[in-house]
Amino acid sequence: MPGQAIIVVGASAGGVEALLTLAGVLPPDLPAAVLVVLHTSAHPSALPRLLSRRGPLPANQATDGAPLQPGRIYVAPGDHHLLVARGQMHVVQGPQEHGFCPAVDPLFHSAAEAYGPHVIGVILSGHLDDGTAGLLAVKRHGGCAVVQDPDEAVAPGMPRSALAYVAVDYTLPLAAMGPLLGRLAAAVAAGAEHRPDATPETAAADHGGLDLTDGGAGTPAPFSCPACGGVLSEIRNGGLLRFRCQVGHRFSPESVAADQQAALGYTLWRALTALNERVLLLQRLARDAGRRRDGRARRRFEAQARAAEVQKEQMRQMLRTVTDAGGDTGDERPPAR
Questions:
Q1: Are 43 and 78 spatial neighbours (Cβ–Cβ below 8 Å)?
Q2: Interatomic CA distance for residues 163 and 168, integer angstroms
Q3: pLDDT in tens, the chain (337 residues)
Q4: Same structural domain for residues 225 and 261?
């Protein structure tokens, strides 16, 4: 399929609505395969069925080793990264990136390396900045970058991040994106005879994992991986800063901050629960001491219970402050554990 375009699409919060709208405006004769990553849970997704109903192109869940066919939409399954190799796709388990699996960057990176200037990268609604590094890779390999108008997106973080770091070719509303993608894919097919020699496959030979090199070892960072607690390394990609741990978890600075915020909130909730339980226990001990007519023990437990009540209220105020300071980091992120 030397003349086939590859369209890769990434979305997160607000992405279901955006993808459904996009599917409805894609041309029925689109000469390209469309591969989609939506931040989702590990549970089976109804998205392929919804996309098939909304537009002219059939949509399926991506399967490992399946061939890429033009005029079809392939959706990454939950808890697996979707990668592209020449002529086929690969569905692999691997470390989370930006706190998600599937993540957008692995798809975009693999497509860029496998198909070079035949790749059209599309960033839709979502919080934070997954997809920015991948779209940068698409551009560096000669591909085309398309971004949803942030003013239209439910969650403008991903589109705005892409616009900040990538020389985006087109920024437009979803209604105009379908016809544009049709024209771009047709142009790729028309210029197929000028395509350079085949580029190497992205996935490892056994397709069992993701490449962890990122072009270098990086510089140790002064904080730990939010996913596993390992040491993070800083990796610069032009003006783009990324972090990676030895396990392979990868983050942008914003996703590290979001995960730290989530972890802090989780820790404070646990502390609040522990203080509440301490108050209840001390109050019970005071009542028991009163029934035994042990005045000294009753007064001691009552004093401790009052002190714990004060601590509980202080913890509640701290938790409220931390929650308010979290800002718009995106409620689609998985809860801290």
A1: yes
A2: 6
A3: 446 899 999 999 999 999 999 999 999 999 999 999 999 877 778 999 999 999 999 999 999 999 999 999 999 999 999 999 988 999 998 888 888 899 999 999 999 999 999 999 999 999 988 999 999 999 999 999 999 999 999 999 999 999 999 999 999 999 999 999 999 999 988 874 333 333 333 333 333 334 434 444 678 888 888 777 888 888 877 677 888 887 778 887 887 787 778 888 888 999 999 999 999 999 999 999 999 999 999 999 999 999 999 999 999 998 888 877 665 444 444 444 3
A4: no
Instruction: Tell whether 36 and 173 lie within a shared domain.
Output: yes
In this structure, the strands spanning 59-61 and 73-75 are parallel
Q: Which of 12, 125, 233, 252 is catalytic?
A: 12
* Residue bearing tokens 């035949």: 118
Q: Which of 39, 98, 127, 141 is catalytic?
A: 39
| Overall pTM surpassing 0.85 (yes/no) | no
Q: Are residues 271 and 307 in the same domain?
A: yes
The catalytically annotated residue of 130, 141, 252, 255 is 130
d(CA 288, CA 38): 56
DSSP 199: P
The answer to whether 91 and 63 are in contact (CB under 8 A) is: yes
- If one counts the domains in the chain, the total is 3
Tell me, yes or no, whether 285 lies in a domain: yes
Both tokens of 89, joined, read 């796709």
39 flagged as catalytic: yes
Query: What is the extent of the structural domain holding 73?
Result: 5-192
130 counts as catalytic: yes
